Amino acid sequence: MKRQVILASTSTYRRNLLDRLGIPFHCEAPDVDEALHKAEESCPATLARTLARMKSVNVARRFHAAIVIGSDQVCAFDREVLGKPGTAQSARQQLRRLSGQAHTLHTAVCVTCNDASEEFLVSTNLWMRELTDDEIERYVEADDPTQCAGSYRIENAGISLFHKIDCEDFTAIVGLPLMQLTEVLRRYGIPVP
User: Fold this and answer.
1) Which of 46, 50, 62, 79 is spaced 20 to 30 A from 40 at the CA atom?
2) Domains plus CATH for the chain?
3) Is 134 in the active site?
């Protein structure tokens, strides 16, 4: 009997990424109070791991025999967590701060099944080029990155903001590292591809 695969997320980005693997799955809201954990955890990488684990475990409690994938991404700039800006003005402010600087995206994944979990973290270093106010204005208007940590959508025009990216899996930048996830799913008997 094939095990059910569940993505513990309502993120369109993560759903679209997992769709690329061609495996049947469905999504469930993880019901995790992210703000509470962000207030308590100062290390960005640990925060990403904690949130991914909480998402996976919370959904796995409702679907015990399923393979549940939880993921979270934290944008870290000088050890400060940059959240989703929410408004165009806040996005412009974040981009001004990141202009000409390096920052890190920590993308954590936790896969839970039958009370056992496997976790991994992919950290990506990104160097943003120097941006003018006009470039920032045009970018925010074109891509509307208000729901993206760091205020860019790298899968769209956001790629033009960078001059260097150091990562082991480009899909981690969008929110779900598929290369390592594929290895975990294979260990659980899910044929990919």
Assistant:
1) 62
2) 5-187 (3.90.950.10)
3) no
